[in-house]
Amino acid sequence: MAYSVKVLDHYENPRNVGSFTKDEEGVGTGMVGAPACGDVMKLQIKVGKDGVIEDAKFKTYGCGSAIASSSLVTEWVKGKSLDEALEIKNTQIAEELALPPVKIHCSILAEDAIKAAVADYKKKQDDK
Ligand code: FES
Ligand code: FES
């Protein structure tokens, strides 16, 4: 299958690959898997005292579209509030990357990973 130019760009030069240490202040971790193909995506956000996402990192064990989707969303969430980050829809990701129908679930994985990371961050704040 031919990947779009934007997918290839993010796939070949993924942004923000890596991870924060678990106990770092303000970190939320989202780990999600795609039942359709078994791919796994880990996405982390680092939230500042003002509630704004300062940084994001990801590790994705999956196809090019999943890697591109996670790379793209780590760029998108930076500078956003948690509520704004939750508004990111997989359809926006799919549109930006021009994903074909069979690769839509890869973008859903990215949306789910952000939601999971925000939920984890909030849970950690509540547990304090
Ligand atoms: Fe999982 Fe794409 S099917 S690698
Ligand atoms: Fe399964 Fe991309 S995440 S094919």
Automatic annotation (TrEMBL):
One of its GO terms (cellular component) is cytoplasm. NCBIfam families: iscU (TIGR01999). InterPro entries: ISCU, NIF_FeS_clus_asmbl_NifU_N. GO terms for molecular function: iron ion binding; iron-sulfur cluster binding. A scaffold on which IscS assembles Fe-S clusters. It is likely that Fe-S cluster coordination is flexible as the role of this complex is to build and then hand off Fe-S clusters. This is Iron-sulfur cluster assembly scaffold protein IscU. Residues 3-126 form the NIF system FeS cluster assembly NifU N-terminal domain. Pfam families: NifU_N (PF01592). It comes from the Bacteria. The lineage of its organism: Bacteria, Pseudomonadati, Pseudomonadota, Betaproteobacteria, Rhodocyclales. It comes from Oryzomicrobium terrae. Belongs to the NifU family. One of its GO terms (biological process) is iron-sulfur cluster assembly. PANTHER family: IRON-SULFUR CLUSTER ASSEMBLY ENZYME NIFU HOMOLOG (PTHR10093).
